[in-house]
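Researcher: Go.
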Amino acid sequence: MPKITIHTATYNRAYILDKAYDSLRNQTIKDFEWIISDDGSTDNTEDLVKKWMEADNGFEIHYYKLSHVGIPRALNNGVQHSNAEWFMMLDSDDHFVPETVEKIIPWLNDVDHLDKFAGIGFCCCFPDGSYMKPQKPIIDPKDGYVDATHLERAKYNFNMDSCEVHRTKLLMKYPFQYWETEEYAPEQLCFYAMAFDGWKMRWRNEKLCICDYLPDGQTKDNKLVKNNPMGFAMMYNQNLLRFHDFKSLFYNASQMIALLFYSRNMNYLSKSNNKIMTALALPFGIVLGYRRRAQFSKL
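Model: Structure:
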């Protein structure tokens, strides 16, 4: 049984997916499997992957062709088919440095038997080697890491794109969430749910994953919000548990209400995590909802 499942959710990325594949073939240790959840690609992704599956890679490749169901369902598909204790995501436009797996296996062993540790995290970087934000992550120089939940990442400058390895069984307990009629919801819904229950991560500042953001990538732009308003409304509702100051609570309640108004799902207000703040923000949120309708109609 492999130590780690490396999972890639992909959609029409045959033109770039070979970078991820080559980076896995070049790993100095290959104690992993690669699961590819193809989210309904119409290009030659399937033919490409099946060709790779026939090669002598040193690791197993498992390919699953899905209907176009969206990233959260594709991620859950990968978790459900994992044969490993640990689960790590590799985006279709990212790739690892050759020593990634060799470095993270001892880190996983360090936290394996610690209580309430969900896994480990390390840094992504741009192709030029720079961090994803100007500030370098803050870690204990003696230990070489910092222990913190996903909710505490900002305190240590880890609130940027990073790469995490989670216990597979924990991801089964906290699946990636989505709204039934939509394709996308932020991954924080999963990770913050773990954090609310006290699950920590051990964060390191090594840059082991290289990100090459592309124009056809999945980004949190207005079009994504327009097509998945309830997924983002769920995120804002979760944020009502994260924050405690009036300004942040009012902002997130207003944004949630606006998206509920836009999507005509105002009955979801009954699930608000802060009903008093939601009541206070209701008039402003409805006005913002009208603005959202006008804004989204132009996209």
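Model: The radius of gyration is 20 Å.
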